[in-house]
Design a protein that fits this description.
Blueprint lengths: L3 E6 L5 H11 L42 E3 L14 E7 L2 H12 L7 H21 L4 E5 H6 L1 H12 L5 H5 L11
Parallel strand pairs: 1-2, 1-3, 3-4
Length: 182
């Protein structure tokens, strides 16, 4: 049985950037291209539509063995534990996540920011608890560190996932100019 690499994190936490890094590494990606690139993710989203229905149907995981799939938090708690996983958890400062989400939705949610913060923090706790209870190995990658010191963070990723790519090559994917919502 081949391992499934899951890229997770809250929305707007750098999961698409991490998928680009895996794509550059030559690791097979499980995505369908339905959600096309746009001004908020000019390099693409790398999503799989079936992930949205994971609560009721996680059968797409049979096609994920030996590949990388993006599953935003808290949806990984619906992973089928008969498979082996390795998880890359993208983290980003909560205020940046919230501002980025507002900008993407073109909606000022300042009045509801604390509600979303509470919800997102709950999603994070729930997801980490699942990984710990199920002994699923994971690594945290901070988005801001990946932008500032791509070599250091990518080296951690290469070691954790056993990638055969060079740090220098994978670092070419990181584009600091796309880090807009600080």
């Amino acid at each position: 049985m081949s391992e499934i690499i899951v890229v997770t994190g809250l929305p707007r936490s750098g999961t698409s950037l991490m998928m680009q890094i895996f794509d550059r590494s030559g690791t097979p990606i499980l995505s369908d291209g339905i959600r096309e690139r746009d001004v908020n993710n000019p390099e693409g989203y790398y999503e799989l539509e079936a992930v949205k229905g994971i609560v009721k149907d996680n059968s797409f995981l049979k096609d994920a063995e030996g590949k990388v799939v993006k599953i935003v938090a808290p949806l990984p708690i619906f992973l089928d534990t008969k498979y082996k996983y390795r998880v890359v958890f993208m983290r980003r400062e909560m205020d940046e996540v919230l501002r980025s989400q507002e900008k993407m939705l073109v909606k000022d949610q300042t009045s509801e920011r604390e509600k979303f913060r509470t919800i997102y923090e709950f999603h994070l706790k729930k997801t980490y608890k699942f990984f710990s209870e199920k002994n699923i190995p994971f690594i945290d990658i901070m988005y801001s560190d990946l932008i500032k010191e791509p070599e250091t963070e990518i080296n951690k990723l290469i070691e954790f996932c056993g990638l055969a790519s060079s740090v220098e090559d994978l670092s070419l994917v990181v584009k600091p100019e796309l880090y807009r919502n600080r």
